[in-house]
Write a structure and sequence with these properties.
By secondary structure, the protein is an alpha+beta fold. The chain has three domains: 2-101, Hepatocyte Growth Factor; 102-141, Laminin, CATH 2.10.25; 143-178, Ribbon (Laminin). The protein contains two helices and eleven strands; from the N terminus they run αββαβββββββββ. The strands form four sheets. The protein has a five-stranded antiparallel sheet with strand order 1-5-3-4-2. It has a two-stranded antiparallel ribbon with strand order 6-7. It is elongated and about 70 Å long. One of its GO terms (biological process) is Notch signaling pathway.
Amino acid sequence: MVSYIGDLLLLFTFLSILVASVSYYYEAVLGFENKVPISEPIHNRSADSLVGCAMSCGSGCKCFNFNHHTGMCISYQSCHAFNMTKNEFGWQLYYRLPLNTLDTDDCQKDPCLNGATCTNTPGSFNCTCDAGWTGILCNEDINECLAIPCQNGGTCSNSDGSFTCTCAGGFTGVRCNE
């Protein structure tokens, strides 16, 4: 795994230098490993390397995915965090940025959902989820009932970002513990 990350960083550095000669560089987006946009691709082809994938991206390309295990390269006109799929092993997303682009506050776009707090990072953002939510954008409900929070024979019902206990046998309280 350490070798894979080192190889990826080396390739990314080489990619940044090489692609800079055509006025753009591509930045790996942390947090979007093993994810692929669901938007319609411009190209879907094999590439011999990360650099080859970047070079084939073309002028209309805003981002691309490269799978380091299969050598597949997918180019897109538009890439938004809301349009990502999950669990596509081996993929890494790279965004194209003009060399003169200053870092912008990605949190101004309100990408985090369900009351989450957004923290801007260079070229990206991180969401800190409120209780009951998980996922990159805090859009995945945590099933609190799996932790069996209801006591004394109470029945748990999961809801978006929360849960409720239906108490049995005269017990009361949020967790049927009174």
